[in-house]
Amino acid sequence: MERKSDQTKALVRQSALGLFRSQGYAKTTMRAIAEEAGVSLGSTYYYFASKDELVLELYRESVTEQRAAASAALQDKSGLGERLKAALHAGVDAMTPYHAFGGAFVGSALPPQSAVNPFGPASAGVREDAIGIFRNVVEGTKVPAFLRAQLPELLWLGYMGVVLFWVYDHSEDQRRTRALIDGAAPLIAKLVGLSRLPVVKPLIEEALALKARVQG
Questions:
Q1: Which of 33, 57, 69, 112 is the most buried (most CB within 10 A)?
Q2: One domain, residues 114 and 208
Q3: Are residues 77 and 183 in the same domain?
Q4: Do 34 and 74 sit in the same domain of this protein?
Q5: CA distance 194 to 201
Q6: How far apart are CA 98 and CA 96, in angstroms?
Q7: Same domain, yes or no: 25 and 123
Q8: In this structure, what CATH number is given to the domain that contains residue 185?
Q9: What is the pLDDT along the chain (216 residues), one digit of tens a residue?
């Protein structure tokens, strides 16, 4: 049985999501969320110290949904391109409820100190979970040994680019984003295959070394 505290936290989260949709992220206050949920302002702050923490919770939920959907979709797929396509589509599916205020979420994530900055320390746990989805994508595929350990994070970085494109995609049902995924996934798989070639491998290794230096 779900504990009352868990029920209250879920109620606050769902109330916030509803207000983000109806009023917009910027106009929604913590007080308004508390009133919508029918709980005290103190209780709202007990579960979420700020709207940023609420957004981080929504991000965590979307990653959990993406992981579950991708895991199921990967069962009958073996090639890197098809597996990557399935994981990327699962991510877009999980984010769909948040599209109306996706731009506001991006704005809240830009400051380096933001709790929802996908590259910041506060989101390290959910970031690792997200990268884990792409580890599952790579697992069992024919990826060169020198690239295998690095590829999941590189694919996640690519996914961040897809998310940014999706945020500003106002086509019906974000069909342009879907087309981007359908075209990019097999292209990435081909590029990974080409990385075995003697003329390409040194360039990839140099790029990986640069990434390591930049990350410190």
A1: 33
A2: yes
A3: yes
A4: no
A5: 8
A6: 5
A7: no
A8: 1.10.357.10
A9: 447 778 888 899 889 888 887 887 888 899 999 999 999 999 899 998 888 888 888 888 889 999 999 999 999 999 999 999 999 999 999 999 888 888 877 877 777 777 788 888 888 999 999 999 999 999 989 999 999 999 999 999 999 999 999 999 999 999 999 999 999 999 999 999 999 999 999 999 999 999 889 887
When divided into structural domains, the chain yields a total of 2
Q: Rg for the chain (alpha carbons), in Å?
A: 19
Co-location of 23 and 60 in the same domain: no
One domain for residues 82 and 37: no
